[in-house]
Amino acid sequence: MSYLSIEQVRKSFGKTTVLEDVSLGVERGEMVAIFGPSGTGKTVLLRLISGVFGPDAGDVLIGGHSVIARGPEERDVGMAFQNFALYPHLPAFENIASPLRARGLAGAEIERRVRATAELLKIDHVLHHLPRELSNGQKQRTALGRALVREPKVLLLDDPLRNVDAKLRYEMRVELPRLLKRFESTVLYVTQDYKEAMALGERVAVLNQGRFQQVDRPAAIYTRPGRVEIARLFGDPTINLYPCRPAAEADGLAIELFGSRLVLPRAAGETAGRPCLIGLRPEDVQIQLEPAPGAIPVELDAVTPLNVRTVLFLRAADRSEILATCSESVGARFGRGHRQVFMRLDLAKALLFDQASGQHLPAAA
Amino acid sequence: MTEATLWSRLLRPVLLTLVALFFLFPIFWVFLMSFQTNEQILRIPPSLFFSPTLDNYWGLVSGKLVTAAGTLELPFMRNLWNSVVLSTGAVLLSLLLGVPAAYAFARFKFRLGEDIAFTLLSFRFAPPLLVLLPLNLYFQTLGLNDTYIGLIWVYQLITLPLILWIVRGYFEDISPDVEHAYRVDGHGWLKTFLKISIPLARPGIAAAALLSFIFAWNNFVFALILGSSSIQPVTVGALAFVTASGIQYGQIAAAVVLSILPTLTLALYAQRYLVEGLSLGAVKG
Amino acid sequence: MAALELDRVSKIYGSRGQHGLRAVDAVSMAIKDGEIIGLLGSSGCGKTSTLRMIAGFESVTEGEIRLGGKVVNQLPPARRNVAMAFEGYALYPPLTVRDNIAFSLLRDKRSKAEVETKVQEIAELLAITDLLGRYPPTISGGQAQRTSLARALVRQADLYLLDEPMSQLEPQLRAILRARIKDFLIQRRMTTVFVTHDQTEALALADRIAVMEAGVLQQFATPQALKDRPANLFVASFIGEPPMNIFAARIAREGGSLRLTALTEDGADAFSLSLPGAETGGQLATTLGGRSTVRLGIRPHLVEVGASGELAGTVISNQWLGDQTHIGVELGGATLIAVADGALAAPVQSAVRLALPIEALHLFDADTGVALMHGLEVATPGVQAA
Questions:
Q1: DSSP string, A289-300
Q2: What is the pLDDT of residues A121-152, one digit of tens each?
Q3: How many domains does the structure of chain A reveal?
Q4: Which among B7, B249, C126, C245 has the fewest CB atoms less than 10 Å away?
Q5: Cβ contact (<8 Å) for A85 and B187?
């Protein structure tokens, strides 16, 4: 049985139902990233677990015991808020000490534990400052320290890296998992950045339309998204999607796309003849300047460099638009675009979805 | 750009001085009057030059009003004390009732919540005289007439809505996350209210208390109808200066100066909190 | 369409004396006809003030703005023939999305048919065809932003000014809309200046980017040049995601070669690299002069993670993000972030070897932060790229 379990939780505010039917089990010491587009109730869910709100239906169990009847102060849950939510009238030390004071620990013990936590977070030199005198990064670490200092069994992190700059965000992405391992807490990490979810979650729970649509390891979600919406949520640029109607052939599944006939190297299964969406990840589309057998001629209309990779904007003969990515050095060869190039597709990695239901149609085994 | 410089360098200070003169002159004049005898005040044309006298103040402090028609007993110091008791009492009671109520209105959505809050505010709309006559009858029956308690109760009409509405705004500005964080830390709701909500709303509470104190201090009608001389505040007590032998302008002026002093001191003291309030609102980055 | 020139343009708020706030400090830029320029910086860096001066909403305190060769300092906004998309969208609430977009075209007395075609075209480009009949208050922030963008781009103007044009766009639409807009701007040779705080957006859209900080133009160059040859530490750490790894470093001369030792945050030695010495990298030695300390910058995606590297470290994080992998490596107490394409088999806690090719290294002055070397190339001073 999972250490933290959320069972069929439902929550509405007035007429809008935010959480329809949410269930999730998290093992002891596990870190699960809760990811979803904004407004899907990720924060509401954390608040239901921390006890700030009560659910309309369902249960929350910690260590096998229902905590739904307990107030937030009785649940032994640590939480870091997106806006830090520090106590502006108290110095950093007192902010971090607050959970220990609530437990009535002795002054010396509080002093020792606050210092130890602060050292770990590298904020021991600013403990006497008020929150408004701290930099954003220090505020964020203070908030984290407050959540960690009492070594909670369950730790809820509500998008803690949202309001910090890029440098600190990347530092924390490396540091945070190491730090949390020391505390052996069960962690729920809410984010609306799919990269952060993939980077930090041992498993990722995709919250969309009021329920968890898929809960799995990051790699599994990226390579085998359960639904077309999930495929669209993971990946930047977004996955290319085109309607198609596959036909069974001797050597695989044939589709009509980009004015060409393409054959997917997989068994037809039940996909033949069914209206489908084919998904091609931008990194599975290779672009070259020279024609080659099997390469589809397309027009390169814009080159938009991303950070590490460059995005190429292509238009096929049938006017459909394709986004491809390549490494920066390759991208530099294409100039400002507006020329003919040739496209190769890694069709083995193509994803098929049922057009009506959006369900992923895996290749028949 | 050059016009802007001319404007900011010359015109603005001149205009500001004019405005300041316009508003401050009456107070300045009253201040001067308080050191003059009635004859000096009433001479025509008025003059800025006179030999100052403390007689007016002395008369107020000793409680003896010397007029052409003889000496009158004047309980001015008693009035002043009454003002302090009534205003302080009214504000304290309002804080006790209004701050928790303001918190409730700010944080919780409950049935008729908005209506109740509005009804409380609407007490400020009704002309006081409308309520006063029936109230007078009730108070006589209940024995509240001519008591501090009775007047403080009626003063709630003035102070409670003010405190409720101003403090409510401040509570609404505090991020609920800060309170949630404190609860999650393991503190109960009452402690959260006392240790987080109240301190964070303190500038608002101070401002509201100050404002309602001034309103209570300046009230006239309630005390005039519902109180006798033993509990009347300065506003009503000043009526005594209108005597059979004329109006004692000098002493009225001295009384005005004396009755401004407490509120002025309070305002200067509370300013510290009001300024602090402006710089405290840093929850986010 | 026209060229735009900013000649030592300053904006001073408040009085002109010492107390005035220099929001924009002597910014010069020459923007060619048809070029797409991004003004990039964090909030309060002066980018928006610059844009508003170009638009004419803000007076120019010092310097000149020339549009198509003509000084426009004193010209009111309406007579500069510029189109602008506002950060707050500024849509007309009583008009439908269609009428909002068509507004300026109708004012210019274009024929109904022409207006309709143009509106349809731009609406398709920005994926708002379904919204044309709706009213602004009923659409989402992202949709309003696309409408506002459409209203600016549909016009026939000499210059297009876009203030944070894509900040609210739905994440799934961002990449494709950026691409379509860039294609649209290039095809029509539209001279465009846009303001953004998001480097991804600036890199994607702009031909050249002006990086601003504290009112001062830090560097004005192509996206590639900003990454390969950042003018100073500010630009180096601002551009790139993950950001450049930056360490304090000590230089020691050993016979003919130079030895560079990177330090940890506490000042202890972390790892060292040997740089080509006098024979191979003569310029390097000259540029570094008598310096004994520098700041060392290492671009994450140029670090080679593999068996043959000269540096040995421990993997502390390995995060696969679908199309790239971010690896955190501990090197003698310092943390270095590397980026690789695709997945990489390097489990956490395992030993790993790294190679730092000379092109991945940037050296900056320890005090001023000014760039000294980019790989073996001597940094050229100044903000304008050659």
A1: SS--TTPEEEEE
A2: 889 999 999 999 998 889 999 999 999 999 99
A3: 2
A4: B7
A5: no
